[in-house]
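Troubleshooting: if your tokenizer reports a length mismatch, compare your output against this known-good record of 310 residues.
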Amino acid sequence: MKSQTEETVERLLDPTVSVEPKYTTKSKTAKSAIDIVVILLIFGIGEFVGGLVGVLLGTLVSKALGDTSKIWETALALLFASLFTILFFIGSRCLLTKSHWLEKPDFIGEINPFRLRWRYAPLMMIATFAGAIAIGCLGQALGVEDKMEDAIHALANNPIGVLTITLIGPLGEEIIFRHGILGGMLRRGVAPWIAILVSSLLFGIIHWNPIQILFASALGVMLGILYTKSQSIIPSLLYHIINNSFAVFVMWIAEITGKEQDPTEELLNTPPVFISVTIVAAAISIPIYIYYWRKPSIVSQKSHASHEPN
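Known-good structure output:
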């Protein structure tokens, strides 16, 4: 028997499959809006409570180490904010699902690696990385300010900060924005592109930093496509981890070489190189994503297989 998520996405992504709609246009919009508000409220409470606990613990650690830089407060605040958000969301989701406030997700299916088409992984990794480069170049061309550059560099030199940036943070964001908000909208029957754009915009806004709003929103679209077509948070989570880890690695290289700019920014300061890299990156990413979007979804493939004669 198919799960609710599979039936809904199957209907939305494959026009040849007929599934009786569960929601009217008005009801699915209203229910999706309520879902988003509830999830963002859970996210806000988790971030606030976890961040407060992290700051208190960070203050104790800083005093014990004689560190006056406040980096331990920041690192532990971000770590506990992510951890509390994950745990609070999982706990709240169980309660709200039982009371029918939120749609019941197929979370086990979403973390099942055996349902994925791994043969597409290398291709999509290249496309997403190229897309990230193109987005970064666009942000640089627009002169978007990075207000958190110093703080992020400091976190990249703290073990707790590195753990949060490269692993815990991406895990929390994928659970909230891909599994929770995007997946919830798909389960309510919202059109995939609308669901992807809404979840991506919210994903960008919560980063606050102007350059990260631009980058995270665009990245959210790519991660949203990966999630929608695979019906799993594994692909988007893996790339999110790799993307953040690469950013930390670049910061380390810049510090080791004693340069104020990271190597990529220094290279892209040359206009011909900058323009060429942007065009090539976009030319690689966009066609691959169009090709991937037009491929049958996993649930659609399973459906066609089930209808084939034995």
